[in-house]
Amino acid sequence: MKATIGTDLERAAAHLRAGELVAIPTETVYGLAANALDAAASLRIFEAKQRPAFDPLIVHVHSREQALELCEPPPAEALALMDAFWPGPLTLVLRKRARIPDVVTSGLDTVALRQPAHALTAELLARLPFPLAAPSANLFGRTSPTTAQHVAEQLGERIAYILDGGPCSVGVESTILGWEDGRAVLYRPGGTPLEAIERVVGRVDPAQKRVLPAAPGMLAAHYAPRTPLELGDIDALLERGAGRRVAVLAFDRPRPAHACRVLSPSGDLAEAARRLFSSLRELDAAGAELIVAECVPELGLGRAINDRLRRAAAARSARH
Ligand code: TXA
Ligand code: MG
Questions:
Q1: What is the pTM of this model?
Q2: Measured from the CB, is residue 135 less than 6 Å from ligand 1?
Q3: Segments forming the whole domain that contains residue 259
Q4: What is the DSSP letter of 132?
Q5: Model pLDDT for residues 15-34, shown as the tens digit of each residue
Q6: Is the CB of 214 under 6 A from ligand 1?
Q7: Is position 215 within any domain?
Q8: Could you give the number of structural domains in the chain?
């Protein structure tokens, strides 16, 4: 099987109705979608991604009403966040109803819900009588896809159809928020800035409880290119790597190196987020022995960018 790339919504819907996998565009990254109410279909996502069963999926909905059919009545803060940020890059972890199969949530009693802001996928969701479970459409632990071609490169042999919605406008995954003892907590920084969320619900702390039964180091190592990645002061790292083929992923200023990508010459964090994953892929393909990268300012979308860079670097130490 070789995936077809196209914009045929009816074909995408037909595959999904048949319990098959379709890659879908969202504003954050491409997702690998299946019928979220069909356990067998959702299980195929884990197989195709080689994703461990303990890592739960996000369920995508076309409306707040559809979301509310899938969870227990949520806290008032969750409703306020839906009003403020849906459709958009914000995922809310809420108590699930029984109609969501356990494979989707890895046996947790909560479900992660989000209404994506991409016209093509919104139209697809509106045509379907079920919501879509969809993780990022990459092999487990690897760089997330921000174009249809990225999906085809990693998963093209394993899925029937890739719905092409162009390059993703946000470029990093959604922010994931939940509630612990009635207080909003952050599970993952992402495309909705924490500062904007805090303007709606007040202070948000990092999650304390471990929701995933995973070994902690495992999920820390993620988003990894095949080339080892080191994070720190680029100039110092370049000096240390003198004589080797070193590629550079810089925030706003290029360096002479084997290969170099600048995330945003004007220092714009939204532009940097949009370019992050495709720049990582390009550097990974540049034949370097090492990629060196630097953190960006830890604010707004910068939190999500730094989180992904840290995990990519952690994957390196996990391999060695
Ligand atoms: O922007 C996004 O969120 C993209 C697009 C496709 O929507 N999706 C995405 O999915 O990034 P994925 O599978 O790569 O990451 C989903 C993460 C899981 O790894 C897990 O950490 C968290 O969401 N998650 C899902 N369900 C959860 C739950 N019930 N409780 C806590 N975390 C959950
Ligand atoms: Mg992912």
A1: 0.94
A2: yes
A3: 229-319
A4: E
A5: 999 999 999 999 999 999 99
A6: no
A7: no
A8: 2
